[in-house]
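Collaborator request, handled under Task 6.
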Amino acid sequence: KFRGDNQFGYFPSIGLGWNVTNESFLQSSSMLNSLKIRASYGLTGNQGIDAYGTIATLEEINFRYGTDNNFPGFTIDGASNPDLKWETTASFDVGADIVLFKNRLMMTLDYFDKKTTDLHQAVQIPSYNGGGSVIANIGEMSNRGVKLSFTSSMLEKRKMSWLSTFNVTYTENRIESHGDVDTVFAEYAVPFYSENFYVLIK
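Structure tokens returned to the collaborator:
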């Protein structure tokens, strides 16, 4: 989908875990059955564009040239962008898994922080430059929050068991940057006219 050196991406990741209950200072604990602390960091890539998203495309259109007849032709539908590259998301997560009271209560706590850069955005091209749009790497977005989960074994019998689970999540999403775009064009339809215009809104 991408061109040149941008066809390939490098997205490493690493994860670490520490089973604290294996340490000698917790071996004698009767209340705590398991405690695991973990952390991870990694990069992921997104290439979610059309197969020919970086190549200029044409759209069929009819012209009348002041007559009552339609004459077929073509106009630019999307400009090319050979410099388009992968969206990249950097993800950090730290959490703990806790098991208490002879495996009757399990808790999971996670904090996550994600930041996506080089977002794929369609940028409108004004009609005086040919119109259409082009996909470009513009802007940054962040996503961070906390997840908490409780699972309790309410009943354990030979032929029946009952588990109850409670989850709560807090998430904050933010647009960190709109990139270096100084102008934004919006499409505007003129009544009783077959073509649309683009107007400056920023």
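The cover message to the collaborator said: "The chain has a mean pLDDT of 80. The longest strand covers residues 140-156. Please let us know whether this matches your experimental observations."
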